[in-house]
């Protein structure tokens, strides 16, 4: 059973600080398996920084069979489905035929084969822990038991569908071997035949997927939940609940089906439809219900609805507010709202409005809105309660515009970086989503209003997060004015700041008054150094590896000298002129002017701007400061940053230009193709590892984090000497071990994995642009054939009867397809989808079950006319309409049927008897056709 050890444990074992010679430690190293000491004729030893252990002793202690071939000097160990083979003196070995690399070759010490401990863990996959102080190696084996605890179910009475069913269970204690859980409902009449094999073959539309997690699992099923036969869960039907624990294929765990739970039956009556899209706005400052404006969207069908009742519930009580509570609530504690001809209803509550507990609505209390659709006839259909709105609180304060306190020309870059804007925040930031800064040409500023501001395109404004404080910010280099022109010297501007209202609360945007007019001027170096580039030219692992080139300032007569700053890439976004001027001399490299463009190689003791020595494995960007010769640091000019660089030294080169192409609607890795440019030098690279990182975590993902990613959470790609495009698989996970989720934003990184021979340090690429999976396609429900029979009517014909799809929503029509019986077992949905119109019989959906007659004028799936004496099986293809559903469904095949010949009426002519042996031949031929 393969269970990979974490890289953190391996790193601890292989980097122990020991003398670089083969020696026995002062205290002999001991080995324990599941806390029992392992006796070995040869104890572990240290060789360099590696722990070497006796292979035979450990393998036999883990119940593996070990065989020695003296002729080839090869040792082979077998345990279950794991076969390990290595040769004395070789730095490679094989695990199940796959080549792995050893830190140092296997050797013989006093007649015992000694191998690095890492190789043992990779070979048999058990957990290993190293205690350097106690000189003790612990090997902990794992259980393969994936069983879950007893399942409990509770049944409500509100909806009459899956939402009334809540399933609780305790997950497996061995979740490392679990891929996911699947909650399945089986009709009580079919439960006796429901087995693990049947459960493993249930389509994903007919079970509820539950991701593995720590702690008890509680899941409420959905409105469209179906039983394993594909029928929607409904009232009056008795079901049993199972939980399928799906084993992790990567660790070879088998799946496990729970025992059946007690039977459950839904008893809810049908209900009217619920309203949706609940919205609440704080529209006034009365401190009571008059401040609350509520709106909601009416359901598509309102003929069976009498009116609506709006309930304001304290958020702390919202989780227990259900249909029964709404039906019992006093009419004085809700607001009755009549139906409307408009799809959206909006109303403002009154000063006397109360919450469902009877308290007047007031400031400072968190509330949640619910709306009840009341039935015109509760004997026929029950009322229906909506989901709750987002929580909201009346605070009694108003949204005011920010006010600009100053705008200054703080630098001489000749662009928006020269503008520093200070402004006071709004009086109540809870009603603000963020702030937006606009630079407006002075001659356009008098006509610049909030209405005009709302029309400005991106690139011509700058958004700033609120932080509870008044703010001073410097604008970005790329910012354009509201006319779409880059901010520049010599133009007169005014600045505005807008408070962008919290959209969830429905607050409007508010624009500040304009700043004083300001024009950018240049009293310093007219232009900074440009074209800053950096190269890795050596392998010292310090500043001597960095060679920096840049073009001199275009007005070097104002420059005294240049300063080269090396900044960690993660800090480059905040490195500006002020920070550069404040750096001590030990954190930059001084370069004198020469009248030409410059090239400089840094010194071994060069430091970055954090004061740390420049070293391999860290990503840097380089800036050049042109220092003014006028004695005023504010008159100096800072260049743009170079591209990122990471010193390789003993590291391999990184891949580059990583991109993700999304194509498909599977909602998993099958939709993702990762492309990247191979490393500029692939020497020392074993292979590439593609890693997917959630976009909100990508800024913290570096080489150290990449080296710790589990082998089941990346996709390995062999190098082939060319740039690579790799289509990912269905089971692809992110670096945290979570399956990809549609709508979640990710970045892709590529780790160049060192082979450990010529180079030993991995290298990480930059991340791709953000990408997200599309929502999975929806599959239309499946029809089922109930009977096929010969129905000649003047010529040979077959009548096909079938049950319509369980839910015809998303269905366009049915296609009845004839397939020769000999080919039917291999007939697939893809083949059915590819058939032209001439090779099936279409049937319109009617809301009822279907009946269709096919005869010899019909073509089968091979394009041949149906023929008497040939055995056929029939399929029904449910064809999606491409709107509500996008994937077709294919029924199971019907029983075989031979199309019968129609015998014409003849006058008084006896059929000559056939020889007995001829009858038998025909019988056999017919049997074979069937």
UniProtKB/TrEMBL annotation:
Residues 33-138 form the Copper amine oxidase-like N-terminal domain. It comes from the Bacteria. The keyword Signal applies. Residues 903-930 have a biased composition (Basic and acidic residues). The keyword Signal applies. Keywords: Signal. InterPro entries: Cu_amine_oxidase-like_N, Mao_N_sf. Residues 1-25 form the signal peptide. Coiled coil: none annotated. Residues 896-930 are annotated as: Disordered. This is Copper amine oxidase N-terminal domain-containing protein. It comes from Paenibacillus gallinarum.
């Amino acid at each position: 059973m393969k269970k990979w050890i974490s890289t953190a444990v391996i790193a601890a074992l292989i980097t122990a600080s020991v003398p670089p010679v083969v020696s026995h430690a002062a205290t002999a190293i001991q080995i324990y398996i599941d806390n029992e000491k392992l006796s070995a004729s040869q104890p572990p030893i240290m060789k360099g920084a590696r722990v070497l252990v006796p292979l035979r002793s450990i393998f036999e202690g883990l119940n593996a069979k070990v065989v020695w071939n003296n002729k080839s000097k090869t040792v082979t160990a077998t345990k279950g489905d794991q076969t390990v083979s290595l040769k004395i003196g070789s730095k490679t070995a094989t695990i199940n035929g796959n080549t792995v690399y050893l830190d140092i070759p296997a050797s013989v010490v006093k007649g015992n084969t000694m191998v690095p401990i890492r190789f043992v863990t990779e070979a048999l996959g058990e957990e290993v822990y190293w205690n350097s102080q106690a000189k003790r190696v612990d090997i902990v084996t794992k259980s393969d038991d994936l069983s879950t605890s007893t399942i409990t179910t509770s049944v409500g009475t509100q909806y009459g569908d899956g939402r009334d069913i809540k399933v609780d269970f305790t997950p497996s204690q061995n979740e490392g071997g679990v891929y996911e859980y699947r909650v399945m409902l089986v009709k009580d009449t079919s439960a006796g035949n429901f087995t693990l094999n049947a459960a493993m073959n249930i389509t994903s539309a007919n079970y509820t997927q539950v991701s593995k997690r720590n702690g008890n699992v509680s899941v409420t099923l959905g409105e469209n939940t179906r039983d394993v036969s594909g029928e929607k869960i409904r009232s009056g039907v008795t079901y049993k609940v199972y939980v399928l624990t799906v084993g992790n294929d990567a660790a070879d765990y088998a799946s496990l089906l729970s025992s059946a739970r007690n039977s459950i039956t839904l008893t809810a009556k049908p209900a009217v439809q619920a309203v949706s899209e609940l919205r609440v706005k704080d529209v006034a400052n009365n401190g009571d219900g008059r401040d609350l404006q509520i709106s909601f969207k009416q359901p598509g069908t309102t003929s069976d609805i009498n009116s609506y009742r709006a309930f304001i519930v304290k958020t702390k009580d919202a989780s227990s507010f259900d249909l029964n509570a709404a039906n019992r609530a006093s009419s004085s504690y809700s607001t009755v709202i009549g139906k409307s001809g408009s799809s959206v209803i909006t109303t403002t509550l009154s000063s006397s409005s109360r919450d469902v507990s009877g308290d007047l609505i007031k400031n400072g209390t968190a509330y949640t809105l619910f709306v009840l659709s009341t039935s015109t006839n509760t004997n026929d259909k029950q009322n229906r309660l909506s989901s709750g709105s987002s929580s909201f609180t009346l605070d009694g304060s108003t949204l005011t515009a920010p006010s600009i306190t100053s705008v200054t020309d703080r630098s001489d870059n000749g662009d928006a970086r020269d503008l520093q804007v200070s402004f006071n925040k709004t009086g109540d930031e809870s009603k603000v989503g963020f702030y937006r800064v606009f630079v407006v040409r002075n001659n356009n500023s008098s006509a610049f209003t909030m209405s005009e501001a709302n029309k400005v395109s991106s690139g011509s404004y700058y958004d700033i997060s609120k932080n509870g404080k008044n703010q001073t910010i410097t604008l970005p280099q790329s910012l354009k004015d509201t006319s779409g022109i880059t901010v520049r010297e010599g133009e007169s501007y005014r600045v505005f700041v807008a408070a962008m209202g919290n959209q969830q609360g429905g607050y409007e945007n508010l624009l500040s008054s304009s700043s004083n007019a300001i024009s950018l001027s240049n009293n310093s170096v007219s232009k900074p150094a440009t074209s800053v580039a950096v190269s890795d030219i050596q392998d010292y692992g310090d500043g001597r590896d960095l060679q920096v080139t840049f073009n001199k300032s275009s007005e070097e007569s104002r420059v005294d000298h240049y300063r080269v700053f090396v900044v960690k890439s993660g800090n480059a976004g905040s490195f500006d002129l002020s920070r550069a001027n404040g750096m001590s001399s030990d954190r930059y490299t001084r370069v004198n002017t020469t009248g030409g463009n410059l090239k400089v190689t840094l010194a071994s003791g060069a430091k970055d701007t954090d004061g740390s020595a420049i070293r391999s494995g860290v990503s840097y960007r380089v800036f050049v400061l042109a220092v003014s010769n006028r004695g005023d640091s504010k008159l100096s000019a800072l260049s743009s940053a170079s591209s990122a660089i990471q010193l390789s030294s003993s590291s391999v080169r990184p891949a580059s230009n990583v991109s993700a192409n999304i194509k498909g609607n599977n909602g998993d890795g099958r939709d993702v193709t990762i492309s990247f440019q191979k490393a500029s030098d692939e020497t020392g690279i074993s292979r590439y590892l593609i890693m997917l990182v959630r976009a909100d975590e990508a800024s913290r993902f570096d080489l150290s984090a990449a080296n710790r990613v589990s082998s089941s959470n990346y996709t390995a790609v062999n190098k082939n000497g060319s740039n690579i495009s790799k289509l990912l698989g269905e089971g692809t996970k992110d670096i945290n071990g979570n399956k990809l989720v549609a709508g979640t934003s990710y970045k892709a990184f590529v780790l160049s994995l060192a082979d450990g021979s010529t180079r030993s340090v991995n290298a990480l690429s930059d991340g791709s642009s953000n990408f997200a999976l599309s929502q999975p396609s929806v599959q239309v429900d499946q029809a089922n054939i109930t009977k096929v029979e010969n129905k000649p009517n003047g010529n040979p014909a077959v009548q096909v009867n079938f049950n319509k799809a369980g839910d015809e929503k998303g269905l366009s029509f049915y296609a009845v397809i004839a397939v020769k019986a000999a080919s039917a077992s291999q007939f697939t949905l893809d083949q059915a989808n590819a058939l032209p119109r001439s090779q099936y019989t279409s049937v319109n959906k009617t809301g009822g079950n279907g009946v269709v007659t096919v005869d010899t004028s019909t073509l089968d799936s091979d394009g041949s006319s149906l023929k008497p004496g040939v055995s056929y099986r029939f399929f029904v293809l449910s064809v999606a309409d491409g709107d509500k559903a996008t994937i077709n469904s294919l029924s199971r095949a019907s029983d075989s049927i031979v199309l019968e010949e129609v015998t014409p009426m003849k006058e008084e002519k006896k059929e000559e008897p056939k020889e007995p042996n001829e009858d038998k031949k025909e019988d056999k031929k017919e049997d074979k056709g069937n």
